[in-house]
C-alpha cells in the first residue's frame, strides 16, 4: 500500500509539471561552408499564436539534436533525436537529455523576426 501511495504522488507530480506544445509552421535552414566542407541543417518549429516557445532541430553528421526554448518558463529542454523507418514512414524519437535556465536578454524581449522572399533582381 505504501508503494502505491508513493507511485500516486509521483504520478500526480509529473502530471502537474507537464507542458503541451503545439506547432503550426516551420522554417528550414541549410548552412554550408565549402572551404571546410561543413554543412548543417536546422529546422525550427513555431506556433503562430504563441511565439513564446519554439523547437529547434539541428542535424549534424555526428549528432541529431533538438532544443525546445520556452521564454514563459525561461527554460530550454534538450533532446537527442533518433531517426528510423517503419513501413515506409520516417519516425523521429526524442530522448530527453537535460534542461537549463535561459538567461534573460532585454534586447530580445518582445522582439519578433520575420523573413520574406526577396524578388530576384
What features would you describe in this structure?
The protein is globular. Strands 1-2-3-4-5-6 form a six-stranded antiparallel beta sheet, with no helix packed on it. The protein has one domain (21-108). It has one helix spanning 2-16; strands at 25-33, 38-47, 50-59, 64-70, 75-86, 89-101. It is built from one helix and six strands, in the order H-E-E-E-E-E-E. It is mainly β.
Structural class: mainly beta
Output the helix-strand order: HEEEEEE
- Oligomer, anyone? single chain
- Strand order of the biggest β-sheet: 1-2-3-4-5-6
Overall number of strands: 6
What is shown here, in short?
This protein has one helix at 2-16; strands spanning 25-33, 38-47, 50-59, 64-70, 75-86, 89-101.
Please specify the SSE layout and strand pairing.
Blueprint: H1 2-16, E1 25-33, E2 38-47, E3 50-59, E4 64-70, E5 75-86, E6 89-101
Antiparallel strand pairs: 1-2, 2-3, 3-4, 4-5, 5-6
Key structural traits:
1 helix, mainly beta, 121 residues, globular
Amino acid at each position: 500500500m505504501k508503494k502505491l501511495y508513493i507511485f500516486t504522488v509521483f504520478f500526480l507530480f509529473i502530471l502537474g509539471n507537464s507542458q503541451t506544445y503545439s506547432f503550426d509552421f516551420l522554417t528550414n535552414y541549410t548552412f554550408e561552408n565549402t572551404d571546410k566542407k561543413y554543412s548543417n541543417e536546422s529546422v525550427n518549429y513555431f506556433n503562430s499564436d504563441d511565439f513564446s516557445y519554439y523547437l529547434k532541430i539541428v542535424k549534424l553528421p555526428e549528432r541529431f539534436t533538438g532544443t525546445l526554448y520556452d521564454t514563459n518558463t525561461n527554460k530550454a529542454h534538450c533532446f537527442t533525436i533518433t531517426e528510423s523507418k517503419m513501413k515506409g514512414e520516417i519516425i523521429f524519437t526524442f530522448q530527453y537529455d537535460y534542461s537549463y535556465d535561459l538567461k534573460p536578454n532585454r534586447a530580445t524581449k518582445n522582439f519578433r523576426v520575420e523573413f520574406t522572399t526577396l524578388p530576384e533582381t
